Structure formats: C-alpha cells, structure tokens
Amino acid sequence: MSRITAKAYAKLNLSLDVTGTRPDGYHEMCMLMQSVDLCDEVKINLTRTGEIRVRTNFRFLPSDGRNIAVKAARAFFDVLGEKDLGADITLKKRIPVCAGLGGGSSDAAAVLRALNRMLGAKLSPERLEELGRGLGSDVPFCIRGGTQLAEGRGDELRILPALPDCVFVICKPPFSVSTPELFRHVDERRGHTHPDTEGMLEAIERGELRGVTQRLYNVFEDVPGRHRGAAAEIKSRMLDLGAMGTAMSGTGPSVFGVFENMEQAEAARKALSQRWRDCFAARPAAPEL
Ligand code: C5P
Questions:
Q1: pLDDT one-digit tens code per residue, 49-106
Q2: Where in the sequence is the domain holding 25, given as residue range(s)?
Q3: Residue to mutate, 24, 27, 177, ligand 1, most ligand atoms under 8 Å from C-beta
Q4: Final residue of a domain: which of 159, 175, 195?
Q5: Closest-CA residue to 109 (of 75, 64, 80, 81)
Q6: Which of 129, 171, 200, 261 has the most crowded CB, counting CB atoms within 10 A?
Q7: Pocket of ligand 1, candidates 137, 155, 187: which has the most ligand atoms within 8 Å of its Cβ, to mutate?
Q8: What residues line ligand 1, using a CB cutoff of 6 Å?
Q9: Please, what is the Cα angle at 52 between 49 and 54, to 5 degrees?
Q10: Are residues 17 and 128 in the same domain?
Q11: Which positions are annotated as active-site residues?
Q12: Within this chain, do residues 269 and 211 fall inside the same structural domain, yes or no?
C-alpha cells in the first residue's frame, strides 16, 4: 500500500486538572479526554526519496521539519531504520490551530497509525504511543482516541467505555492563548477548584451522560486572560440554547457544549456562528488503528 487517506480527530477535555509540577519541568495532569469526529484529513504517499514533505491548506503552518506531521514520519522511519523511505503528506486542516483541540497532536498520531498500516510494521498501540510521547504530550492519547483518562504528563492512559450518544458543539474565539502563561497562573494559585474527576469517571463507567455533563470543568477556565470572558460568554449562550453542560477544552480558547441530539446541536451551532465564526457540531468518535 503506497497511498492512504486517514482521519485525524479533534480532542476535547471533558475535565482537566493540574495536580502538581514534575521534575522534568512539565506538570502533573489528570484529564478525561474524548475524541470527536471534527477531523483533519491526512493523505500520505510513500516514496523512496528519503524526503518527507508536507502541504497544507493553512498557509501559515510550516511545511518543513518543524511541522509535527513531518516529525512523526521521521520518528517512524527512524524506528524502522529505513533511510530511503520518504513521504509526501497532504494535510487538509479543518480543526482550528492553537485552539485546545489537539489538531497538531492528532495529525501526528494519524501519521504514525497510517505509516504503521501502510508499511505492515505491526508496531503495537503502546509502541506508537511511546513514539508519540516524544512529539507532544497529547499525541499518545490521539493514537487510540475515544474516551480515556490521561494522567502524568498526559501520557499515562487508561481506556474507558465509549461515551453515551451525544453531540458536541465547539466554538473557537478568534485569538490564541499562551500555554506557559496558563500554567504559570495555575502554579501561582492556591486552593483553587478542582474537577470531580472521580465522579465523572464513575459516570462514564456507568454510561450516565448527565453525570458527565454536570461535572465538565477545566482548571484553566478561571485563570486570568483573554479567554476567560469569551469562555464565560460562550458557555452562557450555549446553556441558553439547551446545552447539558459546557467547558473550555485544553488550554483554550475553544469552548464546547454537550447536546442531547443533532437537531438541538445544529440549531445551537447556527445561532452561535452569528457571533463566532468557528463553530462546529461533532459526535464522539475513535480512530481505526
Ligand atoms: O508536550 P507539549 O509540547 O504539548 O507541551 C507544550 C507545553 O505545555 C510545554 O512546553 C509545557 O509548558 C506545557 N505542559 C506542561 N505539562 C504538561 C503538558 C504540557 O507544563 N503535562
């Protein structure tokens, strides 16, 4: 197989907690994560040129070795010890960039999964996750996606039962947030609110959507920054439009609401898109390995 088209799903944080700092400079995280069918399309052509190239429809993204999709392909070829292998990668981006939706991480994971399949390399999911760890903290989650608990740097994973049927409406305000700033604010704060991760975990295990939507919470939502006002405004509007619960995803600024069905979600997406350009409706999803 020398050509493949793969889907790279966006991720949402149903909950996000920062529980401490680590000796390696990263933070201890505790997150319930969900992949959804808002996706980038990743096309790969295998070549024998030894070169890895990427083209994308987002012109501001790098197309050289700084692109995480290129780094993923390089890491994969290095593991196989294949110096002559190359790849032409085309990324059709739909997931907003720098949005807290894991777009880059998911592209990297899709490249690892696709190359594993194309080359019949039979690396285990755990081995792919290990490769992903070197590329970014969210890449390991994106290998298997679905619903997972992520701890440690975000790369200690436990696969959970799929979420009950529901629809997410995702809304991205038109600015980006500095990740180091957010972590700095959380480090400086004492006695802040934590999400009820245990309660949400139990609700997921029992398949109770209401128990999940009541507990959506991200510790970055409340720290100072431009995202805070925008998140509050979007969340309040989503609740007015019938959302069962809302939260910011990752380091923001994207906010999502959970709706019972596509009809409600589509109506909410339409209403929100009058004010915010980047609005999407998406269902829970999991990639094929
Ligand atoms: O691993 P990744 O490149 O996604 O991380 C981006 C930045 O987020 C890191 O440089 C670090 O500032 C912060 N981070 C952290 N602790 C984590 C994950 C990310 O401090 N567990």
A1: 999 999 999 989 998 999 999 999 999 999 999 889 999 999 999 999 999 999 999 9
A2: 3-159
A3: 27
A4: 159
A5: 75
A6: 171
A7: 137
A8: 26-27, 29, 136-138, 153-154, 179-180, 183
A9: 135
A10: yes
A11: 11, 138
A12: yes
